[in-house]
Each structure stands twice: as C-alpha cells, then as structure tokens.
Amino acid sequence: MRNGVALITTMAIISAISLIAMSSFDLMKNGYKHLEKIERINQNKIVINDIQQVLSNILGQIKDPNVLADFMIPIPPIGDEDGRFELFLELSPYHTGININSILAPQTKGTDQRKIKENYVSLFERIGNSYELQDIELLLNYIADSLDSDVIERDLGTERVLTDPTRIQGFIPTEKEFREILKEYQSRVDDRNVLNVPWDHFFIFGDSNSETQIDCNFMKRDLAELLNLEVSESFLNDDFEGGFGDDMFNDISCDMIESESNAEIKKEFKISEFKPNSTYYINANLSYKTNAVSDSFKFVFDLKSKRIVELEIQ
C-alpha cells in the first residue's frame, strides 16, 4: 500500500517538473536551439530553481524513514503526447557508505603528514583480505597521497600530482577519479582483484572532509560484515522493507543490526536511520530531451534545508 502511495506522489513530482520544463523550453516560441551559451545557462537556472521548489514542497515533508525508502525506486519517464519532450528523474540514497574524503586524521604536531585513521586502516585491511589484494599498504599510500594537500610521496610514484599537475589534489570528488587511482595501483603491481572490489558498496565521495551518516536502511550487507556488525536474519522475510538495490539479499535494514552488541560500531561509524529535521541528502539524476536539445543534471538535495546543495550540469 505504501509503495503505491509513494509511486503516485513521485509521479506527481515528475509531472510538476515536466510542466515547469515544458514552459521553460518551449521550442516553438523561443527557438531554444539558437540560444547563446549564457542564455542557455540562464534557462537551466530557472528550471533548477523550480525543480528545487517542487522537491522542497513534497520531499521536504518526509518524516518517516519507511516513507523515504519508498521514494528510492526507478521512475518511468514522462513526456508530452506529441513526443516533443521527455523527462527522466531518478532519486537514490546518498548515505550508503563511508565518505572517503573523511578518512584522514588531522595532522599532529611534530609529524610531516596526515595519517589514515586507524579504524579505516583496519577496514581496508579487511577489504584486502576478503578480496585477496596484493599490497594494501601501497594502495593506502596512493589514496592518502590523493587526499592530503602536500606533495611528499609516501611511496615512489604515489603522489600522482608530481607526474601530472592537472590531477586533483587534496580531495577525491567522484568514483571515476577513485577508479583512476585504483588503475594506477593495479598497473604497478598487476593486482587485477582491486578492480573487482565493489567499492561503491563501501564508500561515497562527499564534498567535505567530514564524516557523514551511513543510513542503515541503505547500506549493503558486505559493508556491514566488513565493519564487524552482527546482522540478524530474522528480519529478512517477505515483508522486508530495507533499502533498494540490485540484490535485495545484499541489502539490510536498521532492524537487522539493532542488537546492543552493535552499538559501539554504529556510533564509531555514524550508522543510523533517517531522522527528520536533521541534515540528510538524496542523490538525483534529472535529464530531458526535446526535438532540438537535451540536458542532464546531477544534484544532491538536502531534506533539512530543502535546497540543492551540489549540482553538476553534465
């Protein structure tokens, strides 16, 4: 029943956004394909602001973690009857793993470099053992040298900016950039296993170096196991209402790790379920196409502030 209500509400979101975009991109009236770049940017700003308002009015009212989970589903495209316009919207959970940009400890007095926090070193070691990685220490040196802002090599060749000044330094912004780091490590030691690790189950790429919440309704079982959480199977049944993923048996819910024995680990890694009136992000992909143009946006929407906090026009 809840899924049906959520789907109807989600379709209402798309319909509202579609009407906004159709109004802003009426090709017959404004000859959009001939707009200069700056005019096109201004048009995009109008659409983005209107989309933010629609999401604020609907998603901003969510108070229940179960209702939130219902929105994280594939949404059918919507368009006009003549096929001149089609819009796609996908909402997905943001708080699924550890913010990799937060794993360095602050630099201590008398040391040359920042170090990876001990609990994350242990996590990487468990990943290395589980997936039979050849040299986890070297991999950590590549990652740490990408995350710090100095140019001191932890190992020969691990400070990538020394060989390519265009490399991003002090931050790993995307999974794509992270996989470039993995490829450099892999090519050096011929460790093909590193490319088979489901890194997207374990890490996200937040825009700050602060540790962020992991929502236990959207984390993967393999991350829970690597963090040494005790997972109860008694909640995995036909009424399971945890996160949505490619394989429901790799998803867990907060109920499955509610054991008191997990309390310390959950506190250490900031694992909890969604709570209203707290900072909580949702990923969104929005794209549209018409007879003449198409555009795509990736953005992050904060349920607390009811605003888009990150935006990438693709």
List its traits:
314 residues, 9 strands, alpha/beta, 14% strand, single chain, five-stranded antiparallel beta sheet
What report would you give on this structure?
The protein is α/β, with parallel strands linked by helices and 314 residues long. The protein has three domains: 127 residues, no CATH class; 100 residues, no CATH class; 59 residues, no CATH class. 36% of the residues lie in helices and 14% in strands. It contains ten helices and nine strands. It has a five-stranded antiparallel beta sheet with strand order 1-2-7-8-9. A two-stranded parallel sheet has the order 3-4. Strands 5-6 form a two-stranded parallel ribbon. Strand 1 and strand 2 form a beta hairpin. About 6% of the residues have low confidence.
